[in-house]
Design brief:
It holds the Pfam family Penicillinase_R. Strands 1-2 form a two-stranded antiparallel ribbon. The chain folds into 2 domains: 61 residues, Orthogonal Bundle (Arc Repressor Mutant, subunit A), CATH 1.10.10; 46 residues. It is mostly helical and 131 residues long. The longest helix has 15 residues. It contains 6 helices and 2 strands. A hairpin with a 2-residue loop joins strand 1 and strand 2.
Length: 131
């Protein structure tokens, strides 16, 4: 196990996006809009308050949460679940590419048969009138 110079074990680094998923999960369990301190407490309280604010602000920019003024601070609510957050990330990657058709074609042709079939079914359902 890695140790800091102080002799204490070093905390495990979280994977990219892991904190975002944890914050969204906490917000989905909230009884309503909650403040940053509430989210920080649900995450175990070992994160800096500013780290939690940074994650919430990133999620706000991605459209995964909303905030509203409550006194001198903000309260936060989720707009997306984990699947929604993953979809937002995928969309952001796609939006950053110059050749969307090539990226989508490469993505679809690299899918396993079951996923490709599922994607086709989802696209067909999305095209059906009245839904």
């Amino acid at each position: 196990m890695d140790q800091e110079r102080s002799g204490r074990p070093r905390a495990r680094r979280r994977g990219q996006g892991e904190l975002e998923v944890q914050v969204l999960s906490a917000l989905r369990q909230a009884p309503g809009p909650v403040d940053t301190a509430w989210v920080r407490e649900r995450l175990g309280g070992d994160l800096a308050y500013t780290t939690v604010i940074t994650i919430l602000t990133r999620l706000l920019a991605k459209g995964a949460v909303v905030r509203e003024k409550a006194g001198r601070s903000f309260v936060w609510s989720p707009t997306a679940d984990e699947a929604g957050l993953a979809a937002l990330r995928m969309r952001r990657v796609l939006d950053g590419e110059s050749d969307r058709q090539a990226v989508l074609a490469s993505f679809v042709t690299s899918l396993p048969p079951g996923d490709e079939r599922l994607l086709r079914e989802l696209l067909e359902r999305a095209e059906e009138p009245g839904e």
